[in-house]
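Appendix C reproduces, verbatim, an entry submitted by the partner laboratory led by Prof. M.T., so that reviewers can inspect both the input and the predicted structure.
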Amino acid sequence: MASEGFVKASTNNLPCIDIFMVMEFIKNDERFNAAEFKGVKAAASSRDKHGDSAIGYVELKREGSLCTVQGRICPEHRVDADMHWLF
């Protein structure tokens, strides 16, 4: 089921990241606004199991020090709908 060059993601092959890496990404990516950077949305979605039912399939590809992760997801409020690819 994996795309060409990708393997199924698992806890054994995903890269290790920390909160500082996540915050640096959010700070530098123009798709995130100030409210998201301050953690407003993160606080709303911080409950246990948030989004678990929305994740369908995750895969990754490693090229040197670059790791690309992509997955099929569905908005949590529409878990019965078709999944969408997220890159």
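The CA atoms of residues 23 and 37 lie 8 Å apart. Additional entries are available on request from the coordinating office.
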